[in-house]
Structures are given as structure tokens and as C-alpha cells.
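Continuing from yesterday's entry. The apo prediction looked reasonable, so today I'm repeating it with pyridoxal-5'-phosphate included to see how the binding region is handled. Same sequence as before; SMILES copied from the compound registry.
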Amino acid sequence: MSSSNESHALKSYRPESLMMSHGYKPELSEGAIKCPIFQTSTFVFRTAEEGKAFFEVAYGHRAQEPGEKLGLIYSRLNNPDLEILEDRLCLWDGAEDCAVFESGMSAITTVLLEFLRPGSLLLYSKPIYGGTDHFIREVLPQWGISVLGFNAHSTESQVIELIESSGMASRLALVYAETPANPTNALVDLAMCRRIADRYSRPEVRVPVAVDNTYLGPIWQHPLKHGADLVLYSATKYIGGHSDVIAGACLGSKEVMTRIKTLRTFLGNMAGPWTGWLLLRSLETLKVRMDRQAETAAVVAGFLRDHPKVRKVYYLGFIRPDSTAYPIFQAQCTSAGAMISFEIDGGEAEAFRFLNALRLIHLAVSLGSTESLAEHPATMTHVDVSPEDRAAFGISPALVRLSVGVEAPEDLIDDISRALDAL
Ligand SMILES: *Cc1c(COP(=O)(O)O)cnc(C)c1O
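Holo prediction written out below.
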């Protein structure tokens, strides 16, 4: 929406410098410095000819003229708050296009439904977000879609062996990865996912790679640069960042996003203007929030590692240089992030006593927000995971997951220290 002169002049600036202005023209909104909430279901065409032209483009009946934008038609198709938000989200990931959804799950399920058909095979990494896991294992098979999960720690030859022994290699239609994996920060090698997708691509189908980047994005990991075709977010987490909105996003090339946006139009699962406006506001502080959260998390992780009542700490900053995860971390991640899981000396009873004793940190699921949150994966976010998988992924009864917020590190440590003393 910005004039070409303006966008050219600002092109070299960093995303955090552009989050207050990119894509918004004050002169179209009475000079308002901030984008208003366009709380409207439909948009008035100046002439019938204009309405016809907008629909021709929206329905793909003719190619867009150079520089021609899709005109505003109806808020299920487009709305200024969503379009500006989508333009701004593109800057972080270096993506051509973005679609915002009413939840992370609606972004994820729309991608799965667009790229899978009855008879298709989906390859996905494990462990994976509980809602995604349920949709993949319980819903997709009802549509005749086969699914195959690989452990995040698998080597490339183990994943290939898994595909080959399934007898469904020729039907592979999508590779779906979540990295770092929740709750233990296991890393999936995205370059490996790309090679596997290429290996099983056929002349008529190029197998795409989709990556859930909620845990480190959009600042600390950019999957499109590592061969992914689609990046997915629960924008409820870091992007929203204040635990007050549910939303999702998907980014990729113009070509894949045209498919995703078309399906979104007909599923009708786009976000509304109020959600769009809240996320625009959140994006202005995204970089400072996430930087601060990561700095604080490093201090908290150090405290936990040295505490006698803590057995094990899963934190990206503690990956040892001699481990197989280290080169993946070096290649893919620009920060250790703000998610820490740790095992308390004991079992469920001790973990619960610790959680119940916290005062500053809240006991709640979700992550990436300004306030620190703690939860118990084995009985909460990962209760649906089979006991064998829970054991394989290190989700023990003594494991606590912590999302570090923007509080003073000394105060968080005081709270954690007091709660550990209660054991
Ligand atoms: C929260 C979350 C989701 C689901 O997002 P919603 O916004 O709750 O629908 C998907 N993936 C990951 C990694 C998440 O943490």
C-alpha cells in the first residue's frame, strides 16, 4: 500500500525499523499516524467497472497488471488491517506473501488440506504440537490420507528407510516439520527435510516442505532460507506476545500463497480486523520483546543448570559442540530462544509442588508472551501423546516447561528458587 518511492527508499532498513510504518499510507486515513481498525464487512466500489476489475483479479480470471493490487472487496477476501499485517510479517521471513488466520491451527490445517488428497502420504516430525498431532493422526486418515511420523533425532538414512519400508514412497505429497520441537527443544534438520522432499518429488509433483516456526520465529529462525516452501505460525505466541489474542500466519512464495489464500477465502478462516490491529501493535515491539526474553532466558537457564534439585535442562544454549544437534543449531538458529524445559529431582508430585509454589510465574499453557508461564507437559500440553512416545521424547513426569517473559531475571530466579526450596 505504500508508494513505490517510499518503499524503495526504505528497502534496506531492518524489519524492526519498518514495523511502525510499512504498508500504511496515513493520507488514506485522515492523516492518522496509526492504522485505524477497519471494522467493516464490505467495501464500496467507485464504479461498477472497478468492481468488475477487482473480481477478475480476485478470482484469477485474468492476470494482475504490473503493479496492480487486489482492490478491497469484502473482509473475507481482504481488509486493510490484515493486508498491512501480512506485508509487515513478510519482512521478517523475507517472504513474498503471507496469509493471516484466526488461529495457528487454522493456518496449519489449511496448509495440510491444500497439499494433501485422498491417497497422499504426509511425512511429519515428532514430537509435534498437540493440536497438529491430533489433526494428523485422527482427522487426516478419515480422508484416506496416510501419515508417517519420524523422530526429530532421526538421521537422514533412518528417515529414508522409514519411507521406503512404508511402501508409500511414491505417494509422498508433503513434508511437515516443527523445530525446535516442543517441549524438549529437539532440532529437526531443515536442509535434510528439503533433500528428502526433493528425493521423492516426481515430474508432476514437487513435494513441498512446511515448517511450524512458532518456537523461534519470526526473529531467530527463517526456514524459507533453509529450503522450506511454507512457514507457519501460531501468532498467538511471540507475534501476538501479550496472551490476549489467538491468531495464525502462513508465509511463502507468491505462487504457493495464492493457493493458500484461495482456500482461506472459501474456508473463511481469515483473522478479523480487530485481531489484525492487535497484531500490528504487537509487531512494533516484537524485536525488543524477543531479544529481552532470550537474554533473560539465558540467565534463568544458567541458574537452573546449577541447582541441586534440577536434574536436566533442555535449552538450546546448552547444546554441546560435540552433539549432532550442534551443527543444525549453528546453521538454523540465531538465538537459543526463551523456552526452557527442566526435570526436577523427583516425579509428578514434586513437579506439581514446584508449580503450585510459584508466585510471579503463572501456571498456564501457551508461550512467547510478556509474562513468564510454566506448565507440566506430561499431564497438560502432551497428555495426548502415547506413553511410549512420551518416554522416547523425554517428556517425563518430572518435566516442567517454562516460557520466559520480560520480567527482571533476578525476580524470576527468586520465584523459581523459592518454589524449588518448597520441595
Ligand atoms: C500454540 C501452537 C500452535 C497452535 O496455535 P493456536 O494459535 O493455538 O491455534 C501450533 N504450533 C505450535 C508450535 C504452538 O505452540
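Comparison notes:
- The pocket of pyridoxal-5'-phosphate is lined by residues 103-105, 129, 131-132, 178, 182, 212, 214-215, 234, 236-237, 246, 248 (CB under 6 Å).
- The longest strand covers residues 172-178.
Will overlay with the apo model tomorrow.
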